[in-house]
Amino acid sequence: MTDMNKLLAALLLQLIAFATFAAPTCAGTSGAQTTALVELYTSEGCSSCPPADKWLSALPGPNLSLRQAVPIALHVHYWDYIGWKDPFAQPLFAERQRWLVSANNRRTSYTPHFFVSGAEVYDQGGKLDATIRLINSQPARADIEIRSDASRPDVLAIHANASARVTNRPLQLFLAVTESQLVTAVKAGENRGATLHHANVARKWIGPLPLVGNKIDTVQEVTLDAGWVRKNLKVTGFVQDSRNGEVLQALALENCAS
Questions:
Q1: pTM of this prediction?
Q2: For 54-66, what is each residue's pLDDT tens digit?
Q3: Is the dihedral of CA 20, 22, 24, 26 positive or negative?
Q4: 69-75 and 36-42 as β-strands: parallel, antiparallel, unpaired?
Q5: What is the pLDDT of residues 154-175, one digit of tens each?
Q6: Rounded CA gap, 172 and 154, in Å?
Q7: CATH number of the domain that 178 lies in?
Q8: Alpha carbons 116 and 250: distance in angstroms, whole number
Q9: How many domains does the chain divide into?
């Protein structure tokens, strides 16, 4: 092999290595302990919601990691009639909230409304922190792996597999794409004149996807809206008991679409 051929071969190997390293994919697996899923049901038309939004935006924060708390804000539409239509609200989220209320043997949906791993929690201060810590202390009862591929324009392919370590429970996998660093100047309703900041807002919701034989392996494709800022997106997955809403494990990955 001539020196020129050797040089070309070396350059080719470098290009292959760079392409592999720079591939627009990300992957992650859940840990040995249980990660808490923190759901906030909120609305831009609700005057008492901004403090709760701010609290959720601080998660996971300096004292918690995504291994401990996976935050997700689900905006509901039922306050839109007051005068301000929440641009992030989806009727699907109000339906899920009603289902969680019923699963917790409660009667009323309201905002702001917190659920931690499927259980209703009233206080967004110490009670929420304590609940998260308690869940973190429990060994994981499910394993989740997520890999995403953003190599195609405007499409995020999410490959997720999950398996449970418990039997005889009707389990489901949910996937979500969330966005942070969202800002709204509210011009009507209870928050008129306020500038609201949001994080971990659910943009795309996938599921329920049933586990069969205590496992699932699925590929889901999400069309990325032109208005979403890719670097601010997270991919979230969690396994939930469809009878009582209990979340067995959760996982979130950052920078999967940029």
A1: 0.89
A2: 999 998 877 778 8
A3: positive
A4: parallel
A5: 999 999 999 999 999 999 999 9
A6: 27
A7: 2.60.40.10
A8: 11
A9: 1
